[in-house]
Specification:
Layout (H helix, E strand, L loop, with lengths): L1 H68 L4 H23 L1 H13 L1
Helix pairs in contact: 1-2
Length: 111
C-alpha cells in the first residue's frame, strides 16, 4: 500500500507541475499577444495621424500652387500628379521585388 500512495503523490505532483507550467505558458502568450496588439494599435494611430498630416499638407500646398499659378484648380492637379508618380514608382518597386527587400531590411535593422 505505501507504494501506491507514493505513486499517487507522484502523479499529483506531475499534474500540478503541468498545470502550473500551462498557466505560465498562457500568461507568457497573453503578454506577447497584448504587446503585439498594443504595437499594432500604436502603428495604426501613427499612420492615421501621418495620413491626416499629409492630407492637410498636400491640400495646403495645392492651395498655395493655385495662388502662385493664379488658377482655381491647377494646383490640385499638380499635387495629384505628384501622388500619381509616387504611386507608379511604388508599384514598379513592388513588381521588381526591391520594395520587399527594402521593407525586409528595415525590419531586420530594428532587431
Amino acid at each position: 500500500m505505501p507504494k501506491i500512495l507514493k505513486i499517487d503523490q507522484f502523479i499529483d505532483a506531475i499534474s500540478k507541475y503541468i498545470k502550473v507550467r500551462l498557466d505560465i505558458v498562457k500568461n507568457e502568450m497573453a503578454d506577447q499577444l497584448s504587446a503585439v496588439i498594443a504595437g499594432v494599435f500604436a502603428l495604426i494611430l501613427v499612420l492615421f495621424f501621418l495620413g491626416i498630416f499629409c492630407f492637410f499638407l498636400s491640400f495646403g500646398f495645392a492651395i498655395y500652387l493655385n495662388e502662385v499659378i493664379n488658377s482655381n484648380f491647377l494646383g490640385y492637379i499638380v499635387v495629384s500628379f505628384v501622388y500619381f508618380i509616387l504611386f507608379i514608382i511604388v508599384i514598379r518597386l513592388a513588381k521588381s521585388g526591391k520594395l520587399k527587400e527594402v521593407i525586409k531590411e528595415s525590419f531586420l535593422e530594428d532587431e
